[in-house]
Amino acid sequence: MKLYDRIFKPRQYTLPNGKVVEEKFTRLPLILLILLICTVISVNVTGFNFTVLASNGSKFFDILRDMFPPKTDYLPKIWQPLWDTIKMSILGSFVGAVLAIPFAVLAASNIVTNPVVLFVVRLFLSLVRTLPTLVCALIATYIFGLGTMAGTCAIAVFTFAYIGKQLFEIIETVDMGPFEAMEALGATRVRAFITAVFPQVLPTYLSVSLFCLEGNVRYASILGYVGAGGLGLIMNGKIGWREYSSVGMILIVLFVTVVIIEWFSHAVRKRLT
């Protein structure tokens, strides 16, 4: 930055009191140059071809045009997969959110003082977070077979890792005065946490859980691509058979469902905060 300021000298202004102040030259040209260099490097490394994008990009709009008008006759066959998707999302979110609580407590440095326990639990949460949801669903299909059980497990693992990370960071920011007072009165650390700490983090915990549920509804619709049931399973089949009007109907139903769940979640989170 010093070299940049030497090349593009700052503009000087003299204030009424005689003091001279400097306005540095905008960094926008430098930022654009860095972005251009990074774009050229990424295009060369990945083999991205703008010619192919320009020639085949119109096919996306061809597919989009084939989706409308949607095939309304297919709507009755969507309800059961949609219900499976919602069940996977709700159950997986609930199980993951509940399991995250004890691990978040063990990962909070203001509750647990043992550095070995903190390291092991935080490492475990980090490892679980690195697993993509689709990979978890694929592994679950080999264990539990095809169906919603695999999707529920994958969503529960994702929710557990996400909320566990968020929750232990929230716990570390709470006021520890009531917790220490409970311990001084002879309460166990578990009792002190439930009485003094958990009420402080409960609104944020519920808000994060509901936010996670919103995303899980969308994720659950994709898990069917690896055989985990739900809307993704029938969507994959219809795309394979090029029945885009049926795909359009599935997407409309999914869109309406996500909007309703997001509206409900937003209303609840607004009351919590």
TrEMBL record:
<keyword id="KW-1003">Cell membrane</keyword>
<feature type="transmembrane region" description="Helical">
    <location>
        <begin position="247"/>
        <end position="265"/>
    </location>
</feature>
<feature type="transmembrane region" description="Helical">
    <location>
        <begin position="30"/>
        <end position="55"/>
    </location>
</feature>
<dbReference type="InterPro" id="IPR035906">
    <property type="entry name" value="MetI-like_sf"/>
</dbReference>
<dbReference type="GO" id="GO:0015416">
    <property type="term" value="F:ABC-type phosphonate transporter activity"/>
</dbReference>
<keyword id="KW-0813">Transport</keyword>
<comment type="similarity">
    <text>Belongs to the binding-protein-dependent transport system permease family.</text>
</comment>
<dbReference type="Pfam" id="PF00528">
    <property type="entry name" value="BPD_transp_1"/>
</dbReference>
<keyword id="KW-0812">Transmembrane</keyword>
<feature type="domain" description="ABC transmembrane type-1">
    <location>
        <begin position="82"/>
        <end position="265"/>
    </location>
</feature>
<protein>
    <submittedName>
        <fullName>Phosphonate ABC transporter, permease protein PhnE</fullName>
    </submittedName>
</protein>
<dbReference type="GO" id="GO:0005886">
    <property type="term" value="C:plasma membrane"/>
</dbReference>
<dbReference type="InterPro" id="IPR005769">
    <property type="entry name" value="PhnE/PtxC"/>
</dbReference>
<feature type="transmembrane region" description="Helical">
    <location>
        <begin position="192"/>
        <end position="211"/>
    </location>
</feature>
<feature type="transmembrane region" description="Helical">
    <location>
        <begin position="217"/>
        <end position="235"/>
    </location>
</feature>
<dbReference type="InterPro" id="IPR000515">
    <property type="entry name" value="MetI-like"/>
</dbReference>
<feature type="transmembrane region" description="Helical">
    <location>
        <begin position="132"/>
        <end position="163"/>
    </location>
</feature>
<keyword id="KW-0472">Membrane</keyword>
<feature type="transmembrane region" description="Helical">
    <location>
        <begin position="90"/>
        <end position="112"/>
    </location>
</feature>
<keyword id="KW-1133">Transmembrane helix</keyword>
